[in-house]
Amino acid sequence: MSSVMPTIDMTFPLWGLAIFIGWTIAVVTLLLTVRIRHLSAGGSPKDFGTQNDESLLWRLFRVQSNLVENLPLYIGVVFLLTVRGVSGTAVDLLVVLYIVFRLVHSLIHIAGLNPIFRLLSLVIQLVCLVALTALAIF
């Protein structure tokens, strides 16, 4: 007896997840490239963990860590929305805002811009996650 699991169409939350995963892979690839260049130029592996906001290596490490920390939260929200069958314009808008500000947060960090902009981006992301969670539950 074989059972085939039904497929689910790609929704905004699932597309957001695909973009989030793709962005995380891109950042990890960039981080590896910068690490290899650092070592090729005579740098030490000890530098990888040295906190220095002036260092692209450190900023990329932090961005990668931020992405890995936030991905499970977004996966959880997508799971709730998907299994509960919650969709609509509000969900789509919140997902787009969340993903855009997740990317903006990373770019601000990579560029080494004023941390207040990262904080504002983070607040917007958290508001979106809370709103999406509420829509999924209620």
Molecular structure report:
The protein is mainly α. It has helices at 12-40, 56-84, 89-111, 115-137. Helix 2 packs antiparallel against helix 3. The radius of gyration is 18 Å and the shape is globular. The termini are far apart. The mean pLDDT is 95.
Number of helices: 4
| Broad structural category | mainly alpha
Largest sheet: none
Helices and strands, in order, run as HHHH
From the alpha-carbon coordinates, what is the Rg to the nearest angstrom? 18 Å
Beta content comes to: under 5%
Shape: globular
First-to-last CA distance: 37 Å
The unreliable regions are none
Number of strands: 0
Instruction: Give the helix proportion (percent range).
Output: over 70%
**Please, what is the average pLDDT?**
95
Summarize the structure.
The protein is built from four helices and no strands. It is mainly α and 138 residues long. The model has no long low-confidence stretch (mean pLDDT 95).
Descriptors:
138 residues; 4 helices; mainly alpha
Task: Please write out the topology.
Elements: H1 12-40, H2 56-84, H3 89-111, H4 115-137
Helix pairs in contact: 1-2, 1-3, 2-3, 2-4, 3-4
